[in-house]
Each structure stands twice: as structure tokens, then as C-alpha cells.
Design a protein that fits this description.
Layout: H1 4-25, H2 70-73, H3 113-116, E1 150-152, E2 156-158, H4 166-170, E3 198-199, E4 215-216, H5 232-237, E5 268-269, E6 322-323
Parallel strand pairs: 1-2
Antiparallel strand pairs: 3-4, 5-6
């Protein structure tokens, strides 16, 4: 028989062990993946052995005790095993024809390599790369920014744009609970784009296939002034507004929304087209690797959906064939003009790939 003190001692031990077991078995909710030491991103003194490590940025110390700025941390070569998504490479990435083939190493957003090497129309001109020689700091279809585009901050894409500073705009997001992407905070927003929702592919679309890709949020809207502020196209429109919404900007249809179009529609659901239309044959000859069944998803010309709880493998034309800005473009950069996903200007002489035909199937 155990005495009262012994019983208390063993109960206490059981509670402690149960708590430790919970710590071990609980899922990681942080944006930073398990297994990455703090020192990979942070430094206490911005000094090591009396100097600055070669892997650190040279313009520090930086806020939040990090070892580099946004671009510095995200510079490298993707190999499918890295914990950090690299959006800039100092040597030309392997892009292939569409950035989706099995021998490529670019991610969903593409790469800043081409714009960094003087091709203004092949990427967003974020600091520290030169400003756009044609548009300066005025986004096409929008109004002038107060300064050059940055990764985050008041004139950036990621983080809280009510904060002027890049670090303050993004601070804490990499450690946030992102089990639910609801857009309510930076950390719980799709790819830290505040207010935007979507399904995030764990490998950032490294060599994607029909089951492994981002699922972009779209909206089956009723007019060119009807917007959903949680869609990826609305986010693009915060700078490129005239290409997405505004009275008399998109459609010249007497009903207010539909063909004839003045500009290519976005946040438009192809499910609204006739049952025998060419759009109902999406994706034509551009199905993703691993596809089966009718109307498989295409990673070459991806479409959005209102439900983004999981990646779509097949399109049912039930608010899941929504044209987005990302259907044609990559956010960071590509080797093609206008940041297009495929070489439209090289088709058909130089390539047999024209992703436009994933939707315009009868034109292929």
C-alpha cells in the first residue's frame, strides 16, 4: 500500500509525463517548420567570433534580431528539401517551359532573378533591384506608390501595410498559428498577404502535380464592382486596380458583367459560360501531372475556387473554375515578358506551350 505522500508523488509524476507527452505529440502550428534552430534566423548580438558571418546580411543589425532582410533570407536554390522558400537565386533558376516540370526548381511565385538582371518586364521591381525604367513606381493599372515597391511594409505586398517598416509589417508572422488560414492576421493569411485566404501547398509548388499545389481563392462575382476582399485577384488589384474592378473598366456587357470584355476578366467563374463552350473543356492539353478523369486541374494555368479547404484535383464547374491574375502571371518573376507563366511571345515558333489555350481550348 502506498502512503498519502507516495500517492501524491506518483500522481504528480504522471501529470508531468502526460504534459511532456502532449508537447511531443502536438502538431507544429508555426510557419517556421520543426527542426530549424533559432540561430538559423536570429542572432543575439549580430556578431560571431568578432565579426559578421558570411551567411548574414551586411546591412545589419536588423530588427527582431534576425540575421538578414527579407530577400537575403529567401535567396538560394530550391531542391525540394529546403525549409525556406527561395524566391531569388543568384544564378539562373531551372524554369523549363512553364516552371512546373519535373526538372524545374522554381516555386509558385517564380523568381526575381530575371528582373534583377535587367529585364524590367519579367518581375516586380522590389528593392534593392532598380526601379522599373518605364513605369517607375506607378503600377500599371494603378496609382503611384510613395516609394519603390518592397517585399513588405507600406509599399510592399506581404505583411501589414499600415506599418511603414518591412520588419514591423511582418513581425511575429513566421511563428504564428496558421492551422486556419482565415486572413484575420498576417500570420493566418495566405502567404502573409494580409486578408487573403487560400490553401498553401507545403512545398510552395516545387514541381507540383494534380494533387499537390496551391489552391487560390476566387469569387464568382456578379458585376465589375462586386468584389471579395479575400481573393488573390483582389490583392493584386490593390495596386493594379483597373485590371480587376471598377465601373466601366472590365466589361461592356449591358447586363454589367460578361462578354464583350474590355479587359481580361478576373474573379470570373467559367462555370457561367454555356455548357458547350470551349471553356468547359478546361484544361485542354494542359492537365497537371498525375491527372485522371474529366477536367483535371492544371498547374500551368491554375484556376481559383470559392472553397479553398484543399487542392482541387478535378474541376466540377461549381464555383471552382474562376479566372485569377495568378492563372496567367507569377508574382515574383518569370523568364517571360509581363511575368507570364509561359512563353506566349515565343509561341508557336519557339515553343508548343501556350497556356492561354488551357481555357481557350478551341484555339489550340
Amino acid at each position: 500500500m502506498f502512503g498519502g505522500f507516495e500517492v501524491f508523488k506518483y500522481v504528480k509524476l504522471l501529470i508531468v509525463c502526460s504534459f511532456l507527452l502532449c508537447l511531443v505529440s502536438a502538431p507544429s502550428w508555426s510557419k517556421i517548420r520543426d527542426g530549424i534552430p533559432c540561430s538559423s534566423c536570429h542572432t543575439m548580438h549580430y556578431s560571431q567570433n568578432g565579426g559578421v558571418l558570411s551567411s548574414w546580411g551586411k546591412s545589419g543589425p536588423y530588427k527582431a534580431l534576425v540575421v538578414n532582410d527579407c530577400l537575403g533570407c529567401h535567396t538560394g536554390v530550391n531542391n525540394g528539401q529546403n525549409y525556406t522558400p527561395y524566391v531569388y537565386s543568384t544564378s539562373e533558376p531551372l524554369y523549363g517551359q512553364t516552371g512546373t516540370e519535373s526538372n524545374t526548381n522554381t516555386l509558385a511565385g517564380g523568381n526575381f532573378f530575371w528582373v534583377a538582371n535587367g529585364s524590367d518586364d519579367k518581375g516586380h521591381n522590389v528593392r534593392p533591384f532598380p526601379e522599373d525604367s518605364v513605369f517607375g513606381n506607378t503600377p500599371p493599372g494603378g496609382t503611384a506608390l510613395s516609394s519603390q515597391l518592397s517585399c513588405a511594409g507600406a509599399n510592399g505586398c506581404h505583411g501589414d501595410r499600415s506599418k511603414q517598416d518591412e520588419f514591423e509589417a511582418i513581425i511575429g508572422a513566421h511563428h504564428a498559428d496558421d492551422t486556419t488560414i482565415d486572413g484575420k492576421t498576417v500570420g493566418s493569411s495566405y502567404r502573409f498577404l494580409l486578408g487573403i485566404v487560400g490553401y498553401e501547398d507545403p512545398n510552395w509548388e516545387y514541381q507540383p502535380d494534380v494533387s499537390h499545389h496551391n489552391q487560390y481563392k476566387g469569387y464568382d462575382r456578379a458585376s465589375e464592382t462586386d468584389v471579395d476582399k479575400s481573393t488573390i485577384s483582389y490583392f493584386c488589384a490593390e495596386c493594379h486596380g483597373y485590371f480587376h474592378n471598377g465601373s466601366g473598366q472590365i466589361s461592356d456587357n449591358s447586363a454589367g458583367w460578361g462578354s464583350p470584355w474590355l479587359r481580361h476578366p478576373t474573379d470570373y467563374d467559367m462555370s457561367n459560360t454555356g455548357i458547350n463552350s470551349e471553356y468547359r473543356d478546361y484544361p485542354g492539353n494542359y492537365a497537371a501531372s498525375g491527372a485522371s478523369g474529366s477536367n483535371p486541374y492544371s498547374v500551368i494555368a491554375p484556376v481559383g475556387s470559392e472553397n479553398v479547404s484543399a487542392p482541387k484535383t478535378n474541376i466540377t464547374f461549381q464555383k471552382d473554375a474562376i479566372v485569377t491574375c495568378i492563372s496567367c502571371h507569377r508574382a515574383h518573376g518569370s523568364p517571360y515578358k509581363h511575368i507570364l507563366r509561359w512563353d506566349y511571345y515565343g509561341w508557336p515558333e519557339k515553343t508548343n506551350t501556350n497556356g492561354c489555350n488551357a481555357c481557350h481550348t478551341s484555339k489550340d
